[in-house]
Amino acid sequence: MKPIIIGIFASFFFAFTFILNRSMDLNGGSWIWSASLRYFFMVPFLFIIVIARKNLKPLFSEMKKKPGTWLLWSFVGFGLFYAPLCFSAAYAPGWLIAATWQITIISGSLLAPLFYETVLTEHGPKHIKGKIPLKGLAMSLIILLGIILMQLQQASELTVIAVTLGILPVVAASFAYPLGNRKMMDVCGGRLDVFQRVLGMTIASLPFWIILSIYGYFTVGLPSMGQTIQSSLVAISSGVIATILFFQATDLVRGNMQKLAVVEATQSMEVLFALLGEVWLLNSAFPTPLSWMGVVLVMAGMVLHSYISNKKEAPVGRKASA
């Protein structure tokens, strides 16, 4: 249960991303600065944490071994995840982006065959190619059904542009984030803690953010003070606190694709937190009874997902916890 609880806390802080990104867009801020400023602000906070833990040298030593790999998967896990998410905020409300983002629940499960997991056999630990957790995937579909109900009334009022530019980039991001995260877990192999890994990925993604910010400077100019402040809040709440919590939760179940899918499913709580946050902070419409039915389904799906993940299995062929 510990990884699930950590994942839910992470989803609470992740929800600030959708709320603040929408707020910045409504105030005339460009998605380019919403995306790049977050990672620029994350660097000093993470540096302080890693230096305080005296873990900076091992991180740089690890990054020097495979710099190209770090650049590639950090670009995928952070760049191709957050830039599309901020881009979508210009075309769709935060609740819709948060709801669409829950496709990552299924995306993470579908990525299982690209990785290996550890099973315990009578001959000792064995690495086998991961399989799509069909039972867990069924529970994910219950969660997604709840999300659809939550947003059904508002979604019927969206334009084609909002659907195309507000949803499709988020779908792409939903695959990029778990892919980059899992690949970097494999690359690190447990040699780095979660703080080191997040800092390393942030540093390795900086070339992309620098290029994007240069483009932003020549196309939309410098960001306003308000957008800068809100981006710093996103960096702290979502970029540092939520990312570290989420990566910590995934590290606890590393090597077990079914439990990893459960942790990734905790992100469904972002919809509830983002919806309530927009009602409170941005004066959005209060959810309808149909939306609250969706909330109940999301909760039920989470409980069933957790139950299936933690069912006892036979001693031989039992999946090993990381």
From TrEMBL:
InterPro entries: EmrE. Keywords: Membrane, Transmembrane, Transmembrane helix. The keyword Transmembrane helix applies. The chain crosses the membrane at residues 31-51, 71-92, 98-120, 132-152, 158-177, 198-217, 229-249, 261-283, 289-308. Pfam families: EmrE. This is Multidrug resistance efflux transporter family protein. It comes from Neobacillus kokaensis.
